[in-house]
Amino acid sequence: MINSSVNRVEGCQDDGRAASTPSGRPASTKASPVNVVLLGATRGIGRALARLLAERGDRLCLLGRDPHELARSGADLEARGASGRVLGVRCDLGDAQRFGPALDAAGAELGRIDLVVLSAGAFGTQEQLEADPALCQQVLDLDFTKAILFCEQARVRLLAGGGGTLCVFASVAGDRARKPVALYGAAKAGLAHYLDGLDLRFRSGGLRVVTVKPGFVHTAMTDGLRPPPFAATPEAVAACALRGIARGRRVIYAPAIWRALMAVICALPRPVLRRAAF
Ligand SMILES: NC(=O)c1ccc[n+]([C@@H]2O[C@H](COP(=O)([O-])OP(=O)(O)OC[C@H]3O[C@@H](n4cnc5c(N)ncnc54)[C@H](OP(=O)(O)O)[C@@H]3O)[C@@H](O)[C@H]2O)c1
Q: What does the pLDDT look like over 224-249, one tens digit per residue?
């Protein structure tokens, strides 16, 4: 566990309804702070989202694998307005044994947990994953098996606390099999399927499950890749996700244009997809 306060080292639409938990509070209001645990907020989309949460005064706890990055991110979030200290807790998405203890440490720090965000994940291009079975195993393991095992631990704790929101980053790549993302997309499709079932199973008990499906986002994950049309910044995707959470959405395409784009891609006849390069 790392105490970072000591060791300073657009447009969204969906199919959901109004939020009913504290984490559904719109970003603009100044109600009591929402208590949020994030895994994957030291970089990229997760960091952008954590910054928005800090700026509205939420109480944050960061889970992550690198103590220095956790401390640095915690100090950054405190400076941006997070309520109280931002604790960093060691948790590698590859180590499922740590999920429960890390979430418990976060819960002990925050008192109660309203919102858990999982944005940690791994990526490899189709070519990289086909050429490197070890990398392929790692990406499939982190983005599917370990992501689900983390959600299971979060689910138990949110329900035990009377309910809350679980927000998880899947991808538009999981909506339909396509040549360039056949492997990565398979993991994200499986994850989204699980999240769908989780919502069906536990919504009545007070668990709200939010699945965010970004398109291409300019982050370290996509560094060096040629951006397709509608590529977005992590800040825009984070704002979209936060708005969707506040509005009680279940599935959030980020940016929103991806909902329409994926509807078209999902409707394409198979022979067209066989010929297409995307
Ligand atoms: N970027 C895109 O185009 C895109 C598109 C669709 C979906 N997504 C999904 O959106 C999520 C966020 O992506 P991003 O682009 O923001 O990624 P990113 O910039 O690479 O950041 C990934 C974050 O996850 C953390 N992380 C990675 N592996 C971890 C591990 N084993 N244990 C703990 N933390 C780990 C990283 O921590 P460290 O600082 O320790 O590395 C970092 O905070 C991912 O689930 C990704 O699949 C991204």
A: 999 999 999 999 999 999 999 999 99
CATH number where 122 lies: 3.40.50.720
Query: Is 181 in contact with 222 (CB distance < 8 Å)?
Result: no
CB atoms within 10 A of CB 160: 12
* pLDDT exceeds cutoff 80 at 73: yes
Q: How many domains does the chain have?
A: 1
- Other CB atoms within 10 Å distance of the CB of residue 17: 10
pTM to 2 decimals? 0.92
Report how far apart, in Å, the C-alpha atoms of 120 and of each of 13, 150, 247 are: 24, 11, 23
Q: How far apart are CA 91 and CA 64, in angstroms?
A: 5
Ligand 1 midpoint to CA 228 (Å): 19
Q: Which residue's CA lies nearest to atom 9 of ligand 1? A: 169
Q: Which atom of ligand 1 is nearest to the CA of 234?
A: 16
Q: Does residue 209 lie in a domain region? A: yes
5-9, 154-158, 211-215: least confident range? 5-9
Protein residue with least CA distance to atom 46, ligand 1: 121
Domain encompassing residue 70: 2-9+22-275
Atom of ligand 1 nearest to the CA of 146: 31
Q: Pocket around ligand 1: residues whose beta carbon is below 6 Å from it?
A: 40-46, 64-66, 69, 92-94, 119-123, 142, 169, 171, 214, 216-217, 219-222, 234
| Cα 121 to ligand 1 centroid, rounded to whole Å | 4
Task: Give domain status of residue 153, yes or no.
Answer: yes
